[in-house]
Design a protein that fits this description.
Shape: elongated
Strand content: under 5%
Largest sheet: none
Number of helices: 4
Radius of gyration: 14 Å
Distance between the termini: 40 Å
Number of strands: 0
């Protein structure tokens, strides 16, 4: 259920943003996601931490696709 909660939170948060916002407001988005997850899982005794390496890798892949497909 933790994976489902994390996936749902990620989709719900990113689904309200434009692509450019996702790249430029990543710290605010990360904080929003972590706050939501921490609030939901506090009673379970679970604390989330952010690993930024996958975020950079994901950003690079998306930018490569974006440049290839549009330009």
């Amino acid at each position: 259920s933790i994976k489902q909660l994390a996936s749902s939170t990620l989709r719900a948060t990113l689904g309200t943003k434009e692509l450019t916002q996702i790249f430029t407001e990543k710290d605010a988005i990360s904080t929003e996601i972590l706050t939501t997850l921490d609030t939901a899982t506090e009673s379970w005794g679970i604390k989330y931490e952010l690993d930024r390496e996958p975020l950079q890798s994901c950003k690079n892949k998306i930018m490569k696709i974006f440049k290839t497909d549009i330009f």
